[in-house]
Each structure stands twice: as C-alpha cells, then as structure tokens.
Amino acid sequence: MEKKMNDLYRIIAETIDQMIPVEWAEFYFNGEVENGEGGVFFFFKPINVDDYVYSLDIPNKYNINSNEYNQLENRLFKTTNDLKNIFLENGQEPWFSIHYETYL
One matching Pfam family, short form (predicted)? Predict the structure, then answer.
C-alpha cells in the first residue's frame, strides 16, 4: 500500500509541475473526491514572486492551450481518485479532501 501511495503522490507532484509553465518555489494542492466526482486545484508561488497563482487561472494568465491543460487536470483528478481508492481498499478511513504541499 505504501509504495502505491508514494507512486501516486509522485504522479500528483509531477503532473502539477507539468501544469505550471514557469519555475516555481512551492505549491499547495487540494483534491476533493466523493463517489468518483469532485475537483482538484492548487496554488503555486513562482520563484521571486510574492503572490500565489490559482491553478485555474493558468491557461489565461500564461496563454496555455486549454485542451492540453484540461488533459493534465483530468489526470490530476484521476490520480487523486486512485489515491482515495487505495485508502479504501486497505481499510483506511475514507476522506473527502486531501491537501498536499511541496517546496523546492
């Protein structure tokens, strides 16, 4: 279970990294899943910038193709859902929301 969870946490971090089109110092991820539905979002802080950027603002702020961005967002949600399923399959307490932080 622990290896599968670590793999999914890694995929979440890698996917977020792919979604951020600039160098970043940190991000805060939130995923909400209930019965296979929900949503994912994150805030990130670009290097040498004081303000955080909301993930859903990325396509407009950085002129990113919305279809490509949405594919990554869907992968992020699917991975979050897979993580929840691993918890459930192993008798862990069900959760609705997960928070994940990474700093460089």
Answer: YezG-like
